[in-house]
Fold this sequence. Notes:
The protein is mostly helical and 467 residues long. It has helices at residues 2-6, 19-29, 38-46, 53-62, 67-76, 101-104, 110-117, 121-150, 155-174, 183-196, 202-205, 223-253, 258-280, 283-307, 315-345, 365-368, 372-408, 412-421, 428-441. Helix 8 (121-150) runs antiparallel to helix 9.
Amino acid sequence: MQCYRLDRAGRGRGGRLSQTGLLALMGEIKEEYRDYSHSTVARWESGEILPKRGRLEVFGAALGLPRAEIDGLVALAGLGDNDLGHADNDMGVGDITGDFRPVLSTGRSPSEELVRQGRSHGNDIGRFLLAKLLLPGLGIAGAGFFLGAVGFNADWMLTAYIVAIIGAMLSHYFLPLRRSRGLRDFLFISVFVLLSTPMLQAPLMKMDHFGFYAIDGLGGTPIPYVLALLVNLALAFIAALMYDYLTRWQDSQGSANPYRRAAWVTVPPLAFVYVSMLFISCAGTWLYLLEALPVLGGVLMAILVLRDESIQISQWTKRFLLQCTFAITIVLTMMSLAGMVVVYLEPSLQMVADHTLLRSWEVDFNELGYSQEEFIDRSRISTVWSSLAAIIYMVAIVAGSLVVTIVKKDPKDSAAAASALAPEAVSPASHKRQTKRTRIDSRYRPGWLTGSRVVKPIQGIAAYTPG
């Protein structure tokens, strides 16, 4: 794999394709590879992690290798046709060829397809800006100003507007209309939903937790909700960009510890969101996010660690992780429901959105259209409504994503890595497979598998010397 990578032109050292660049190309074929680090590629190339057919298929398609040469790579690795199934996918399930075979059948090589798509880092950020900030922002603002123009200011109409915005963002992420960008998109949509669920209280209470409703001329109109949703969108977008930058920074630093890497790319974006909300939102939102964001961060770090191929688990560990995930999810859900009941039953816990750390204002209940006594009942109902929405998302989407990651983690990888790290424990079949691959590797280089010999051999690679 190293020889094939170094034989490609790229932006790495000496004008060759870097390990990070290889992962970017493989990520175009199967998105999970975007979340791998370059240290994982180093383990592939050193033989510390033995190859699997699914990975070789994606590797060959990303480099635009002919079908015959990809089959030759699989043969060199000692993998037969029966190895293509569920055990060989890097995520543990499914037939990997389904992800890129349509590309091969278009008449263009995968590399030409990638060039045509122009998915460089700069273009990717530009598309992300357009798809996640500009277009949704225009949609949020356009729909809100339309409601205001036609006079649709009823509580149920404004509630439907907020629900529709959250639903549209979720459908854009989950519907198979585009290829997801992996955990960056997952972080974006999760932060936006968690910041927006408190907005479900706003129409009934006629006040938002940012205090936009107290600005002269905005009370009783949809504009405070539009502004609040736009702030949530901007914070989620910045957090996702921070995650993307920190991921690339960790790759450039050569971070080999998957736990440290997961913490570095996850904690700062979520800390930024919480600190920002401390200054611009009311106290009730601080307490809510103090519970929700750490759970989201823990799940994101767990998914990142489990996706790293250097982390190997046994079948017993896999079952244990699933049981722990279900148990923790149940406990946290019950605690959240209990807290919701306590807040509902205790009137003194109902907080009025009348200040932030940056400013404070007087609440005129007569202008809001209800009495101060009625505020308690409205606050109780709206708190239950918004809390249930947040709990459902955390259980169904956040915890569900972790469960899916654990289920897709192939425990057979553990045995393969153990064989590579402990030669004395290698079975006779594995030893025969390694010996065969080493013997053939010493005689062949890229291009030989299809009868096209490379005239100028790659220098400085011990595994590939001229025959």
